[in-house]
């Protein structure tokens, strides 16, 4: 029995695994690759040079692989790659990459994209992330593993979001959010560490203590310039994977400034 519904429109040039399920009224373009155990429930459009890896489930009225909403886009052959075991809910949109971003939009494994979320061109999203309802991600945004973005939040183009971080609902993030950081507001400011997330993911008390120390050095001593605080943290030589990731994120500076605590 075919797992491709008779009302689905599937281009003969597409590459779809026979164990994938293509539901009613789906539309699949010529350059699409769909791996085994992918489920498109109904009314899903997949176009462009898009790959959907095994185990991903896509809900109705989602559009994957559309052209970027970028006036500089000139029809270049960008791509979208979606990893394994993602859950992509209703009305989600994801766009292919552009020349300025390496021609690829990348989504990792085991992510949840709630209804109405948008992933723009050239984004790079890690694994185990949650983008809640109507989260808007602009172009060239990088999101690390285990990050959670609350509903109706928005992220400025070229912004980096570190792993295990949390962005509160209704927030507008225009600056880089450190790994393990918690930010909220319009414009979003750093409220501290995502301690709830650290505990839920079984970071032990010693790691959390070291993370708190690193945060204190970086963000609670306003007497020194920020670059001096970074050097002070390095000099303390704290043996911790969390602290090492914080230092690595900050020293590999992107095009945006850092999301900082609100000035008192």
What's the structural blueprint in terms of helices and strands?
Blueprint: E1 9-10, E2 15-16, E3 21-22, E4 27-28, E5 33-34, E6 39-40, E7 45-46, E8 49-52, E9 57-58, E10 63-66, E11 79-82, E12 87-88, E13 93-95, E14 104-107, E15 112-113, E16 118-119, E17 124-125, E18 130-131, E19 136-137, E20 142-143, E21 148-149, E22 154-155, E23 160-161, E24 166-167, E25 172-173, E26 181-185, E27 188-193, H1 195-200, H2 205-219, H3 226-236, H4 241-251
Parallel strand pairs: 1-4, 2-5, 3-6, 4-7, 5-8, 6-9, 7-10, 8-11, 9-12, 10-13, 11-14, 12-15, 13-16, 14-17, 15-18, 16-19, 17-20, 18-21, 19-22, 20-23, 21-24, 22-25, 24-26
Antiparallel strand pairs: 26-27
Keyphrases for this structure?
10-stranded mixed sheet; 27% strand; 2 domains; UDP N-Acetylglucosamine Acyltransferase, domain 1; alpha/beta
Explain how this protein is built.
This protein has 264 residues and is an alpha/beta fold. It has two domains: 9-198, Hexapeptide repeat proteins (UDP N-Acetylglucosamine Acyltransferase, domain 1, 3 Solenoid); 202-251, no CATH class. Helices cover 16% and strands 27% of the residues. The strands form three sheets. A ten-stranded mixed sheet has the order 3-6-9-12-15-18-21-24-26-27. A nine-stranded parallel sheet has the order 1-4-7-10-13-16-19-22-25, with no helix packed on it. The chain has an eight-stranded parallel sheet with strand order 2-5-8-11-14-17-20-23, with no helix packed on it. The protein is elongated and about 65 Å long. The mean pLDDT is 96.
């Amino acid at each position: 029995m075919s797992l491709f519904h008779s009302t689905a429109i599937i281009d003969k040039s597409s590459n779809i695994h026979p164990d994938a399920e293509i539901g009613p009224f789906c539309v699949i373009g010529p350059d699409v690759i769909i791996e085994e155990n992918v489920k498109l429930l109904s009314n899903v459009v997949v176009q462009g040079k898009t790959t959907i890896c095994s185990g991903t489930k896509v809900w109705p009225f989602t559009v994957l692989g559309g052209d970027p909403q970028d006036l500089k886009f000139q029809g270049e052959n960008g791509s979208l790659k979606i990893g394994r075991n993602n859950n992509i809910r209703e009305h989600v949109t994801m766009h292919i990459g552009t020349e300025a971003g390496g021609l690829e939009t990348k989504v990792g494994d085991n992510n949840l994209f709630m209804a109405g979320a948008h992933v723009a061109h050239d984004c790079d999203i890690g694994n185990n992330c949650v983008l809640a309802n109507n989260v808007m991600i602009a172009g060239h945004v990088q999101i690390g593993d285990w990050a959670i973005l609350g509903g109706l939040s928005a992220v400025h183009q070229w912004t980096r979001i570190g792993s295990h971080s949390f962005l509160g609902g209704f927030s507008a993030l225009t600056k880089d959010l450190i790994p393990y950081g918690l930010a909220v507001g319009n414009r979003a400011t750093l409220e501290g560490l995502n301690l709830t997330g650290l505990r839920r993911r079984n970071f032990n008390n010693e790691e959390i203590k070291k993370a708190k120390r690193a945060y204190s050095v970086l963000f609670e001593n306003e007497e020194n310039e920020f670059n001096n605080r970074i050097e002070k943290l390095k000099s303390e030589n704290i043996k911790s994977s969390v602290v090492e990731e914080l230092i690595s994120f900050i020293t590999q500076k992107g095009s945006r400034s850092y999301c900082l605590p609100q000035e008192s």
